[in-house]
Write a structure and sequence with these properties.
Blueprint: E1 7-11, H1 18-29, E2 31-35, H2 54-59, E3 62-63, H3 76-92, E4 96-101, H4 104-112, H5 122-147, H6 151-154, H7 160-173, H8 177-182, E5 193-198, H9 202-218, H10 221-230, H11 245-252, H12 258-283, E6 288-290, H13 295-306
Parallel strand pairs: 1-4, 1-5, 2-3, 2-4, 5-6
Length: 307
């Protein structure tokens, strides 16, 4: 692998301004943008997921946005296969890949490799999820550490998603999740990555989330959600987890007011952003944490960290 090859990784919480910065970086570095947001992959949902606009995609080439139907399952493993292909193709064209998004697990898979774990039976998974729901994260984490002491060194006490994953792996394989992690190999040399995280302040982020929610409704998000429900998507599919889907459905059915629907979307988006910050604290310690409310200042800061 030649030394000049690099991949710019741009992460941050939802609504922090990643897409706008990515376009400026793409123009500066002769780059193309690759999606690392697990909800922006869907064809049929663009407004609710704040997918880059048509005008954005005309300024810089975008990949892996809106390419999967909401009716299909899509995993981190499938994303990783696609993104590896895209990176190699861009390098062949002397382009700089710029991977942008808010899905921490996607970035971890790209930089560290994907952990290969045997498929856990759905019956066991369901049983463990019910246990977690019944006793809560605090008690569940205590039980996890009891059966897998290594978990304490790698999983935050508040990280319910990883706690559940580690618990089900230990129960099914009788091995710690971290014995599987040790065997994992990255797909690229670590020094090719330039890693930026937009460390926006909480107050600024909350303001941006409010603005984003208002813009969604101006852009006719109601029609988008109506079309989604006409497709009769199976309940277990990940597309049902898109923030706003359920709240807008409840408004359309007359169960809640429009004001309440907006408030719930804002609230859930803030909670999601908080989880993204928690992930960053636990898994992105080697990333450059920067921010400025001025896009030109933010761009300059990024250039200094990347170069």
């Amino acid at each position: 692998m030649k030394q000049q090859k690099k991949v710019i990784l741009l992460a941050g919480p939802t609504a922090s301004g990643k897409s706008k910065l990515a376009i400026k970086l793409a123009n500066h570095y002769n780059g193309e943008i690759i999606n690392a947001d697990s909800m922006q992959i869907y064809k049929e949902i663009s407004i609710l997921t704040s997918r880059p606009s048509t005008s954005d995609t005309m300024i810089a080439k975008h990949h892996l946005y809106g390419f999967i139907s909401v009716k299909k399952k899509f995993s981190t493993g499938l994303w990783l296969k696609e993104v590896i292909k895209k990176i190699k193709k861009q390098w062949k064209k002397n382009k700089t890949p710029i991977v942008v998004g808010g899905t921490g697990l996607y970035f971890k898979a790209l930089t560290d490799g994907l952990v290969k774990i045997p498929k856990i039976p759905e019956r066991l998974r369901s049983k463990i999820r019910k246990l977690h729901k019944r006793i809560g994260q605090k008690k569940f984490y205590t039980q996890l550490v009891r059966i897998d002491p290594l978990a304490k060194n790698f999983i935050l006490a508040t990280d319910s998603q990883r706690s559940i994953r580690a618990y089900e792996i230990k129960k099914f394989t009788n091995k710690s999740l971290f014995s599987f992690i040790k065997k994992t190999k990255p797909n690229f040399s670590y020094n090719i990555f330039r890693k930026i995280f937009l460390n926006i302040s909480r107050d600024m982020l909350h303001k941006k989330i409010e603005e984003r929610v208002e813009k969604m409704f101006k852009d006719d998000v109601l029609l988008e959600v109506k079309k989604f429900y006409k497709m009769k998507i199976k309940n277990e599919l990940p597309s049902n987890k898109i923030i706003g889907i359920r709240e807008i459905r409840d408004y359309l059915k007359g169960k809640i007011t429009l004001y309440r629907a907006k408030e719930l979307i804002r609230q859930k988006t803030r909670q999601y952003a908080k989880r993204q910050f928690t992930w960053a604290r636990g898994h992105m310690k080697s990333w450059e944490m920067i921010y400025s409310s001025n896009i030109n200042d933010l761009f300059k800061k990024s250039i200094n960290k990347i170069s």
